[in-house]
Amino acid sequence: MPNRRHRRTAPTNRELLSVTDELALARKGKHILERRRDGLIFVLLDLLDRWTELRRETDEAFRDAAELHVQGAEREGEIALRALSEARDSHTELIVSETKLVGLTVPFFMSTSARRSLDGRGYGVLGTSALDDELVGSYESVVEDVVRLAEMRAVLLRLLAEIRRLRLRVNYLTQRLIPELEVEKRYIRRYLDEREQEERFRQFRTKRRNERREAERREAERQENEYREAEQREAERREAERGAETRRRDERGRDDD
């Protein structure tokens, strides 16, 4: 994967510290997101088991209601059953709200109870049978299960969306951001190491050059001192020769007298 981040960053120690902090933060965020995702997955699996069980119970309740509907249609006719269903003057009301589940906002369904007493179903006792009451009660139970099933399905969809979002963020951190930061960190550190080696080599060359110049200066001073000492010895020798010559002249002068 090509990395273009280091092309626009200054390879300095300050930038290295900044990248190191950003890399540590990205790794910490990745760990937190992974834990959050795993926690939501456990909640999802638990709710999925409950949803599967509720779905099975709802299917069984609907099959029981369908069997009772067939029996009622055979005994009283479809028209009587339709009139029985239209006799009810009130219907189940559903209010969709929100609640918190492990820190996540999920939908919450509030509904009035679908179950009614005999006097609240809209038909009288006369002209109906116990089968009718059992059929109505079965459909009321199915309606309540369907509301619970719809609520749980909405929660599952919200959990799936959040898990998918966390998975994308974790994948981005794992496969894109963290590798780029690691490459950038290695680039800056390699650049700083090379620059440090160059600086050490430059200091070594400067030291060697200074030592060589110091040695040349000392050699020149030594040669100059030797030259001065030689001149001084030569001057002393000449002075001694002139003194000796003067003494010889004095001695010859005294002899001539």
From TrEMBL:
Q: Does the keyword Repressor apply?
A: no
- Kindly give the membrane topology term recorded for this protein: Peripheral membrane protein
Q: Which Pfam families match?
A: ATP-synt_D
Start and end residues of each stretch annotated as Disordered: 206-257
GO cellular component annotations of the record: plasma membrane
- One GO MF term: proton-transporting ATPase activity, rotational mechanism
Q: Where is the composition biased (Basic and acidic residues)?
A: 211-257
Superkingdom is Archaea
Q: Which InterPro entries match?
A: V_ATPase_D
Task: For this UniProt record, give its keywords in alphabetical order, as a comma-separated list.
Answer: ATP synthesis, Cell membrane, Hydrogen ion transport, Ion transport, Membrane, Transport
Localization terms from the record: Cell membrane
A GO BP annotation: proton motive force-driven plasma membrane ATP synthesis
What is this protein's function per UniProt? Component of the A-type ATP synthase that produces ATP from ADP in the presence of a proton gradient across the membrane.
Q: How does it assemble?
A: Has multiple subunits with at least A(3), B(3), C, D, E, F, H, I and proteolipid K(x).
Family membership noted in the UniProt record: Belongs to the V-ATPase D subunit family.
Instruction: Report the protein name in the record.
Output: A-type ATP synthase subunit D
